[in-house]
Write a structure and sequence with these properties.
Elements lengths: L4 E2 L2 H7 L6 E2 L4 H4 L52 E3 L13 H9 L6 E3 L10 H13 L1 E3 L2 E3 L13 H9 L6 E11 L5 E12 L15 E11 L7 E7 L6 E6 L4 E4 L31 E14 L3 H4 L3 H4 L12 E13 L9 E7 L5 E7 L5 E7 L2 E3 L4 E3 L4 E5 L5 E4 L10 E2 L10 H7 L3
Antiparallel strand pairs: 1-13, 2-5, 3-4, 5-6, 7-8, 7-21, 7-22, 8-9, 9-10, 10-11, 11-12, 13-14, 14-15, 15-16, 16-17, 17-20, 18-19, 20-21
Pfam family, one: DUF1329
InterPro entries: DUF1329
Organism: Derxia gummosa DSM 723
Length: 451
């Protein structure tokens, strides 16, 4: 089995405890690799030695037959045959290619949880202007006091030298400029009961990817969200608006609570604070596996490794919700796992900080920078949660991205959470023209919500 490809010792030492350091951009000579041995996003263009990971040849940009913007997203690889299955009986054979959380799930649910492995397809793609901006970022972007500067419109650090650079690549990954999506959150209790936490209409926007912008004009607000709830009945009419900034102190979130009939600003919209968007089931920084400010942790870039991860998951979108949401986990037959190279990051609580998780490990797909899996340890050092996302092929953007479809398994209590259960939604991810900035304001939230 392939072993972890570690980064040089000097870089590893630099990455530990460097929460207030400044990391410089790479040289023009190193950045030139983005047009030769590396993809435009910084992944290795070549496949692996035995061909089980193919070479990247531009990604998947072929329109999916029958798809119209705003409709259900078909699975372009539905004809692929499964290569093999991993269960509790043969997990040791593949242990080096599985996260700690996946191995724990196989052990906890030996009769139901499994990993169905399919041929690896390197579908990641983006518009040329995003690639061009990524190349510019490589030689101009740097981190100062945990905040990227001089980065805009592309992956900020395609050739990362530190853990903080890598996690910012995830936070600023390409996922489109603006989109609308149905949102549904489902909590499943330890005994298998489903509790719907939210049914909402979601508007999303990334000002960081406004095509006519520039580092000079960019004000740091990189992600905007507005959710208006239509259910469950006790939450109908509630809403939330968020404006996320590179500087976490400038991030702003407001909620509308129908019983109070007023918009209130959320005082601590970050980190391990429960988020109103999930009725408090998940924390702010569990959104999309990881979201929010990074200064609660020290980030270590451990290295790169070949691992089995959820990927090209249109299959899950096409599975009816009643089948997809099982008693203890998503139905394994609805998931597609592939072998890909990932960057491994470890986040430990920084000195003087606090967090419910004492340590976290993230697995970032090298082609897209999506955090596809995560392992969380609690304050007692016990493996506590497994976070996951479901990257989907969207050649219309083009992109392979995770449309707010994520969740986590609580390995101790047995409960789990599935956000954006879009399976039955007629509209799963609609590419939109740019929204007016006023869409993401407390005033707009007041106008949209039910009193």
């Amino acid at each position: 089995m392939p072993k972890l490809k570690t980064i040089p010792l000097a870089l590893a030492l630099l990455a530990i405890g460097a929460s207030h350091a400044t990391f410089a951009a790479v040289s023009p000579e190193e950045a030139a690799k983005l047009k030769s041995e590396l993809t435009p996003f910084g992944a290795e263009r070549a496949g692996n030695a035995d061909g089980s990971i193919p070479a990247w040849n531009g990604g998947y940009t072929t329109p999916i037959a029958g798809f119209t913007n705003g409709g259900k997203r078909p699975d372009p690889f539905s004809a692929d045959k499964m290569l093999y299955q991993i269960t509790a009986r043969n997990v040791d054979q593949y242990a080096d290619r599985l996260s700690e959380g996946v191995k724990a799930m196989l052990k906890k649910y030996p009769d139901s949880f499994r990993v169905d492995v399919y041929p690896s397809r390197r579908t990641a793609a983006a518009p040329q202007w995003v690639y061009d901006n990524t190349a510019k970022n490589a030689v101009r972007a740097e981190i100062r006091n945990n905040i990227p500067v001089n980065a805009y419109g592309g992956i900020p650090f395609p050739i990362p030298k530190s853990g903080s650079e890598a996690i910012w690549n995830h936070l600023l990954r390409w996922r489109g400029e603006a989109w609308h999506a149905a949102v549904k959150g489902v909590q499943v209790t330890a005994d298998g009961r489903q509790v719907v936490t939210a049914i909402a209409s979601g508007d999303f926007q990334m000002p960081y990817y406004f095509r006519d912008g520039s580092p000079e004009k960019f004000d740091g607000q990189f992600w905007s969200i507005r959710l208006i709830n239509s259910g469950p009945p006790m939450r109908a009419g509630e809403g939330i608006v968020g404006r996320q900034n590179l500087d976490g102190d400038r991030t702003q979130v407001w909620t509308y609570i129908t019983g109070q009939r007023r918009v209130r600003k959320v005082p601590n919209a970050c980190c391990d604070t429960p988020t109103p968007a999930s009725a408090g089931v998940s924390t702010f920084d569990q959104t999309d596996v990881f979201d929010g400010r990074i200064d609660r942790f020290d980030w270590k870039l451990v290295g790169k490794k070949e691992m089995l991860i959820p990927y090209n998951g249109n299959k899950l979108l096409a599975t009816p919700e009643a089948q997809a949401i099982g008693k203890h986990h998503i139905d394994p037959s609805a998931m597609r796992w592939e072998l890909h190279r990932v960057w491994v990051l470890e986040a430990t609580v920084a000195p003087g900080k606090r967090h419910l998780a004492s340590k976290r490990r993230y697995y970032l797909d090298e082609d897209t920078w999506i955090a596809v899996l995560a392992d969380h340890w609690d304050a007692n050092g016990q493996l506590w949660q497994m976070g996951f996302s479901n990257p989907v092929v969207m050649p219309d953007l083009p992109a392979t991205t995770s449309p707010q479809q994520f969740g986590f398994y609580d390995l101790i209590s047995g409960a789990w959470y599935y956000d954006s259960a879009l399976n039955d939604a007629p509209e799963q991810y609609k590419v939109m023209p740019r929204y007016p900035d006023t869409t993401f304001t407390p005033e707009a939230l007041t106008g949209e919500s039910i009193r």
